[in-house]
Structure prediction request, 726 residues.
Amino acid sequence: MSAFTPIVTEAKPAGARPPKRRRLLRSAGVRFAVLYALVFGVSTVLLAASLRYSTIGLLDRQTHEAIRGDARGLAAHFKTGGLPALVLTLDSRINEDINENAIYLLVDPLGNRVAGNMSRWPTGIATPNAWYQVPVERAGKRSHALMRYYELPGGFQLLVGRDVSTRSQLRRVLRDGLIWALAAMLLLGALGALVIRGLFKRSLADISATSRAIARGDLTQRVRRSGHGDEFDELAETINDMLDRITRLMDGVREVSNSIAHDLRTPITRARARLEDAASHARTEDELRSAVDRATSELDGVVKVFQALLRIAEIEAGARRSAFASINLTPVLEDLAEFFDAVAEERHITIDTAWPPDLPMTGDRDMIQQAIANLLENAIKFSPPDHHVSISARMDAQQIEIHIADQGPGIPEADRPRATERFYRGEQARSTPGTGLGLALVAAIAHLHGGVLRLEDNRPGLRAVLVLPRRALNPEATLRIKLWAQTMRKTEIAPPAPE
Amino acid sequence: MRILIVEDDKDVAGFVVKGLREAGHTVEHADNGRDGLFMAASENFDAIILDRMLPGGIDGLRLLETLRAQDNATPVMFLSALGQVDDRVKGLKAGGDDYLTKPFAFAELLARVEAMSRRGKGEGPTTRLNVGDLEMDLLSRGVKRAGQKVDLQPREFRLLEYLMRHAGQVVTRTMLLEGVWDYHFDPQTNVIDVHISRLRQKIDKPFDAPLLHTVRNAGYMLRVEEP
Prediction:
């Protein structure tokens, strides 16, 4: 296995690794963790903002409303009862204020205090009907107040306000809480990120270890499944399936190369021996010529095996699906039966035929022809003289079955599964000419069409059943037709000629 | 015939050149695509044998496409190691008249080149074919030899027609398989020989001089024997 491992040379010098910060960002685990922390942080900030808006904002709006209402009420009193009524109302309001946070000040045109619970006009308040937030000193205590002043007829000025020191306290509490929450969030986010990164690393570590082992050439390694049935398990399963398939393909390749080595070595050895023998021992030109002729025909046999192998490989790769078209199998069968009837007759073999007048299906005519020809030639080759070979076909909505049966030695049941492998040759076949690739080719063609080749006992003899689906249900062909239809519409080119 | 072979492998080219000269043809050889294209475009040839993978920047397909773009209709046969069905289709689509896969038998190459260049001359539609005293009427689908009617099955008729159209030329088994039956596989049995011998029974057996001859190691030829 290790012989397959390619030697990888590091192109970059060892010192040219990226700086640590860049490498850290390149880790998918870290990236996911950072993303997680970001989402967590943004949602926390949003939560805090909405909390702030709904508490402090609400309080602010309530205060504004209270001041406006207060001012409206006082203005009404002034209108009806003049200055005395206003002063009376102010005094009673100041007395009734339990929380002691209402602020009033009424001054005359000269700026002298007429009524209210403030000693003097606060500095900085100059424009009427605007909101001011100013520090005030009331009863020896410093605090903040929100206020607004109104101009009354006669040059009087009325200042209405509220002490908002409670609101400031609330704001401080909120801010402190948010800072703590932010700190906790940072901590939790970092922790969460670490956990996520750890999970990633653990889940991926096994996959990457397995991949490394495979890359080294050890195809027996498989990814361990955690058993949670999660996405990582699915990934592991997919990778394992892929590895199984690769292993099977590798086994197939190895088997085929062994067979090739054997089946091609033999005729090449013979040809070589003949040529060498002729070169040193031939006495006449005729001897030499016949040796060369025989060596040439040995080499032709090698070429035949080679071409059959390549064709099987080509078909198995699915490269020929592009040639799929609507075909009728009846004329194909008629022609082939007529074609091979000549050989059969020469060997005193009768070909019996039975098929419906139409066998429409989608497929590659050339390949199906070849498959049926191979089966028919096999049947004729192994059928004893004065016996019958029969070709029949039947069809239902889904598939067409072609039966080709002989009365020859057949294939023992134990050997049948192996009969479609490359280079299989039955006991009876070893003495007859052939490559041992005929049935493998038929099986490959059936497979390409989504069908199957069945080998059954004809009692006596072999019955080969070629099952072909009538509609080739491969997505690739459907896609091709779709693409073709699109090209058609765009450029109006002629449709591809039917086979 | 004047034939150009564009092939970079010296041994293969030498072998083909020698064989074609022995068969009485005049042969020119180019060992890369550029020279090949220059010669093919500037001189007149009856046939071109073209390798697909060529040195010199221009491969066989490009060479042929360039040639066909210049309205040069010289018959071209590809001789290539690329033998998959898709490769053949590509070669024929590019304007090739025939496609022979390496390794090949020289007899096959010779027969195909000769058949191809005759086809290239374009005889026009014919209604009658004659070889010696053998006559074929393509309209009434009747065959006579020395004035006597010969009964043929439809497939035998097509086989004889193919042979008569290539009278005087070697026709290989593969050519018959493709030209008469449109089969592209290699039968394991001698089925073509059996069909030929059946045809012989009908057109040659009852008469003195045989017309359908076997050419050893190559195939068959329909012609009048020189006395």
User: Anything to note?
Assistant: Chain A has a mean pLDDT of 79.
